């Protein structure tokens, strides 16, 4: 297994332009919110957030002036209700915590919402809006078996919490342990690996996706879900879009190689292709709307675009990639060639 040694961590932010905003408005992703990302940056200090073992994490608790706290909490509650209940009032809620992470591109705020009536809690995130990430979220809506709610307002992105165990934590916790239903786990990794490649979602290191565990009547089922969409159609190397090439995912690759031969893995890949084609058919108009805008947008460097067009052309043994000079066009060609669908025919 080759190892990926470099990714452009500080990827530039790409502004969400008017055509993409129009798409978001048409599909109820654009909304007015009472607080913006920049408002939450006006803290006086940061205190390290500790885990259950009292060890420091990548997160910090911002300290705000008392005069600002009431407005911030009230606004965040309104945002949460807009995200999960279309703005309808939900009683007994309070903001139980605000955390800030300076690691990564989006530098998110994680908001903990608690229901005083039953002590239940939930999270959502406030991030800087970036066109790459928004395209990634929309493609997740179209091509994955899962849905994710988000709202864009100006330079602010509100994103729901995706439930699951971060895969790096899952791997560490289960070292030298034979997990239940290992075959299903390996199968789901193969499908996840292929799904990321087909829709060109990069940087799926183990800490950028989660393992969702669902008890079934006779066993345990698994699903892998991405939680970071910043590297949607940005990097130039093909291997960036294949989770199998990351050192962090070595344990997953080894398990798949132990349990699955090439024929079985190939069958699972074909199953995922068939599922993605069905999802495309069910979201044809949404895909048409999104890709019409993406093919005219600028979300990567010329160097990355040229390199990815070269490598995917070589991968598919197809000359149509040779003259492509936009990430939207590359993704369309890649989808059409891999899945056997006609995206371009739908786009005028």
**Mind summarizing the main beta sheet?**
7 strands, antiparallel
Derived from helix and strand composition plus strand pairing, the structural class reads alpha+beta
Q: Categorize the overall geometry.
A: globular
- DSSP E strands, number: 10
End-to-end separation in angstroms reads 41 Å
Q: What's the pLDDT, averaged over the residues?
A: 93
H-E string: HHEEHEEEHEEEHHEEHHHHH
Low-confidence stretches: none
Tally of separate helices: 11
Q: Helix content range of the residues, please?
A: 40-55%
Evaluate the radius of gyration. Answer: 21 Å
Query: How would you write the strand order of the largest sheet?
Result: 1-2-3-4-5-7-6
Approximate strand percentage: 15-25%
Total domain units: 2
Task: Describe this structure as you would to a colleague.
- The protein is an alpha+beta fold and 348 residues long.
- The protein folds into two domains: 18-160, no CATH class; 165-346.
- 40% of the residues lie in helices and 18% in strands.
- The chain contains eleven helices and ten strands.
- The protein is globular and about 65 Å long.
- The mean pLDDT is 93.
Throw out a few tags for this protein.
single chain; 348 residues; alpha+beta; 2 domains; seven-stranded antiparallel β-sheet; three-stranded antiparallel β-sheet; 10 strands; 40% helix; globular
């Amino acid at each position: 297994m080759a190892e990926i040694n470099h990714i452009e961590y500080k990827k530039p932010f790409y502004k969400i332009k008017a055509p993409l905003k129009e798409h978001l408005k048409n599909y109820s992703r654009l909304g007015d919110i009472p607080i913006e990302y920049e408002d939450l940056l006006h803290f006086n200090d940061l205190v390290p957030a500790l885990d259950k073992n009292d060890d420091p994490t990548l997160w910090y608790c911002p300290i705000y002036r008392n005069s600002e706290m009431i407005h911030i909490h009230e606004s965040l509650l309104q945002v949460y209700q807009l995200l999960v209940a279309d703005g309808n009032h939900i009683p007994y809620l309070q903001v139980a915590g605000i955390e800030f992470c300076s690691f990564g591109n989006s530098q998110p705020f994680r908001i903990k919402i608690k229901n005083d009536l039953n002590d239940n809690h939930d999270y959502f995130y406030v991030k800087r809006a970036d066109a790459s990430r928004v395209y990634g979220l929309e493609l997740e809506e179209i091509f994955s078996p899962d849905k994710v709610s988000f709202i864009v307002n100006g330079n602010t992105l509100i994103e729901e919490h995706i439930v699951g165990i971060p895969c790096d934590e899952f791997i560490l916790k289960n070292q030298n342990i034979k997990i239940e239903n290992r075959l299903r786990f390996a199968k789901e990794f193969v499908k996840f690996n292929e799904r990321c490649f087909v829709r060109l979602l990069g940087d799926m290191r183990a800490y950028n996706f989660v393992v969702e565990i669902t008890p079934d009547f006779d066993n345990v089922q698994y699903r892998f879900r991405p939680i970071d969409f910043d590297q949607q159609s940005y990097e130039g190397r093909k291997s960036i879009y294949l989770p199998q090439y990351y050192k962090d995912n070595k344990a997953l690759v080894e398990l798949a190689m132990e349990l699955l031969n090439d024929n079985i893995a190939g069958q699972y890949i074909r199953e995922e292709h068939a599922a993605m084609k069905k999802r495309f058919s069910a979201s044809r108009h949404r895909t048409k709307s999104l890709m019409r805008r993406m093919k005219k947008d600028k979300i990567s460097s010329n160097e990355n675009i040229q390199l990815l067009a070269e490598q995917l052309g070589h991968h598919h043994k197809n000359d149509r990639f040779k003259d492509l000079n936009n990430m939207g066009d590359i993704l369309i060609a890649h989808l059409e060639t891999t899945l056997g669908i006609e995206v371009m025919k739908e786009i005028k």
